Amino acid sequence: MKSNVLIFKAAPEDSEKTKDIYQEQLEDNNFGVEIVNVIQFNYKNLDVLKTKLTRPNEYSGIVFGSPRCVKAVANAVDTLYKQWQSVPCFAVGEATSRLAKSLLGLNAQGAETGNGEALATVILKCDLKKPVLMPVGNLSRDTITNSLKSNGVAVDAVQVYETAPHSELRRTIEKLSIDRFNAMVFFSPSGVYSSLPIIRDLHPDLGSVKFVSIGPTTEKALLEHGLTVSATAAKPTPEALAEAVSSAFIK
């Protein structure tokens, strides 16, 4: 019998794909999949970001911690100054790196990293004599910023978006037949915080559900809610997530 997986994540920012790449991978692994868009992003301070983007010579690099940060730059300028192509670009994970290339024409280092701590290690291997420009969200955990600053690298951080629960979240969950899902996958701590109270309010008994996280920070958020995490993806990639979900059903 096919196991059904319910994914809680933001709508994909990668406009090149018409179908969610994580859903595709799980379906290829014979899972039934449905996605709930748990959070939405409201962009801000794009005028401030635009001004900074006109001064590429003042920076040793530009750092993207999420696809939304890339999208903010794309929203802030019609065309990115070509000089940025000569400035080192760093991005957490494959999705963010791919978007930096498709939207901005930037070749990012760090596609193999799965979290901010790992990316900071990559950045610190470079000779950075000037600050790095770093668009961030309101819920940024400052992992990269703190690591860089503690190693003498200046960071010019600009808050470019705010994360909020999706306006249709409760209505969407109310329409779901939760009992038919064998596993729930969460992609961010904010997704956990916004959706779990609603899920528990509507469906108090979740004892048979396998909980899977996309990474360690999301795993921590699930644990803080008193849940048992059956598996955590080794990297934030479709293949690693499919492996994690599969392993959750073996345990």
TrEMBL record:
Keywords in alphabetical order: Heme biosynthesis, Lyase, Porphyrin biosynthesis
CDD domains named among the record's database cross-references: HemD
Domain of life according to the entry: Eukaryota
Keyword Aminoacyl-tRNA synthetase: no
Gene3D superfamilies: 3.40.50.10090
Pathway(s) the chain acts in: Porphyrin-containing compound metabolism; protoporphyrin-IX biosynthesis; coproporphyrinogen-III from 5-aminolevulinate: step 3/4
GO cellular component: cytosol
Reactions the enzyme catalyzes: hydroxymethylbilane = uroporphyrinogen III + H2O
Family to which the UniProt record says this protein belongs: Belongs to the uroporphyrinogen-III synthase family.
Record's function text: Catalyzes cyclization of the linear tetrapyrrole, hydroxymethylbilane, to the macrocyclic uroporphyrinogen III, the branch point for the various sub-pathways leading to the wide diversity of porphyrins. Porphyrins act as cofactors for a multitude of enzymes that perform a variety of processes within the cell such as methionine synthesis (vitamin B12) or oxygen transport (heme).
Record protein name field: Uroporphyrinogen-III synthase
Organism: Laodelphax striatellus (Small brown planthopper)
